[in-house]
Design a protein that fits this description.
By secondary structure, the chain is α+β, with helices and mostly antiparallel strands. The chain contains 11 helices and 15 strands. The strands form 5 sheets. It has a 7-stranded mixed barrel with strand order 9-10-14-13-12-11-15. β6 (182-183) and β7 (186-187) form a beta hairpin. It starts with 43 loop residues before the first helix and ends with a strand.
Length: 404
């Protein structure tokens, strides 16, 4: 597929064969080259110059009230401030005012916030370029290139979860076997390899927010190395194309296995829960108590009356934040948490085939938390609704193993 075509393919299958499974604390690294298919990622240059891209971003902005209900106006931000709370270093919002993107007959009308976002992807130079510290938007530096790549990755992650048939989410795809990889012309050290292995693309982008807000660099990387890594992620499935050499060698899809179903089912990770390198958590799955409407929301301690300590809590998405759900599970003595997706708040129930544009049902989303949130001591995974129902309704006891 040509880079100029901004067509998002529907995901029709998963290529998960060959991943090794080892239960318990001695889990081995997953075999590379077995990432899920059907992703679409784009380089900054294409996103900045394609009118089709601008229209997609505009459509993505329009979904803000449903995808980001706490602040429907804001949709993209970069740069966690060194002294919270926000504002972030850079924020893009829907303005309600239209602007033209592109030239001549190819020009399209989009929200002014979208036009500003697209302009921010154009490097180098003021007034839209990012600075080295993300504090002075009129001075381009190495941090500006990092910011451009990080913003592109955020867009790519959102597109994969909203516009591609969302049986998997690019946010949860994780790094593997980084030993021997060169970033910015320098081979990674053993400490850098250990820090990166097992990290999901969502975690990489969230980590980039810290130096872009004036804080320290993550994973022991330099500005150039972090920029190079994110550039490789943005080119992993260029313009909906086949996996790049880097993707085939160093990316894999987290998954869950269980006696409640046959085979491997995809999952994603959180940025706030404990996740040691190549962590596999396994054990008996126990549903939290249902609320009055029958949902397994797990938002308060009342959901854990007589919950057996040391078991994995099965929780349904909805009402409260992911962070609160896992926090309450931890306080109740759960060893881990598995959160499964919910049905649409309005409209028909979940279809048998995943629907592009839906963030519910079979969609997989990365679980984030507010800036500055403390890391919780238990691991957590997010799974498709069908997976959650199989775990909920499976034979007793239901045992699950999650490879992150």
């Amino acid at each position: 597929m040509k880079r100029q075509q901004f067509v998002l393919r529907a995901l029709v299958s998963l290529v998960l064969g060959g991943i090794s499974i080892t239960l318990g604390a001695q889990a081995q690294a997953p075999t590379p080259g077995v990432v899920a298919g059907g992703f679409c990622t784009y380089e900054p240059g294409l996103l900045a110059t394609s009118t089709e891209a601008a229209q997609r971003i505009n459509q993505y902005f329009a979904l803000g009230s449903t995808l980001q209900p706490l602040n429907g106006a804001e949709f993209f931000h970069l740069g966690v401030p060194s002294n919270p709370p926000p504002p972030y270093a850079y924020t893009w919002t829907r303005t309600g005012t239209t602007a033209s993107v592109g030239r001549g007959k190819k020009a399209v009308q989009v929200d002014l916030g979208v036009a500003s976002l697209v302009q921010a992807l154009v490097t180098p130079g003021p007034p839209s370029a990012f600075s080295e510290s993300a504090a002075n938007p009129t001075d381009m530096g190495t941090g500006g290139i990092l910011a451009t790549q990080a913003l592109t990755l955020k867009i790519n992650q959102g597109f994969s979860e909203v516009f591609v048939t969302p049986a998997t989410g690019f946010s949860g795809v994780s790094l593997v076997n980084m030993n021997g990889v060169e970033l910015d012309g320098t081979a990674l050290t053993s400490a850098q390899v250990a820090a990166l292995n097992g990290q999901a693309t969502l975690q990489i982008r969230e980590a980039a927010d810290v130096p872009l807000g004036g804080g320290p660099l993550p994973y022991g990387l330099s500005f150039g190395q972090l920029t190079d890594l994110i550039d490789l992620l943005n080119g992993s499935f260029d313009a909906c194309g086949p996996p790049s050499a880097f993707a085939q060698a160093h990316l894999y899809q987290p998954y869950v296995t269980s006696n409640a179903f046959v085979g491997k089912r995809p999952s994603t990770v959180s940025v706030f829960a404990s996740k040691p390198t190549y962590n596999t958590f396994s054990g008996q799955v126990v549903s939290v108590l249902p609320d009055a409407d029958g949902r397994l929301l797990g938002c308060t301690s009342a959901s854990y009356m007589n919950f057996p300590a040391g078991k994995i809590a099965l929780i349904e998405r909805g009402v409260c934040t992911f962070y609160q759900k896992v926090s309450v599970a931890n306080a109740a003595g759960a060893s881990a948490a598995i959160i499964f997706n919910s049905t649409p708040e309005t409209g028909p129930p979940c279809p048998a085939v995943p629907t592009p544009g839906s963030t519910r049902c079979e969609a997989l989303v990365g679980m984030g938390a507010a800036a500055g949130s403390a890391t919780l001591p238990i691991p957590a995974a997010f799974v498709q609704r069908s997976t959650g129902l199989l775990l909920r309704n499976g034979a007793t006891p239901v045992i699950a193993s999650v490879q992150q």
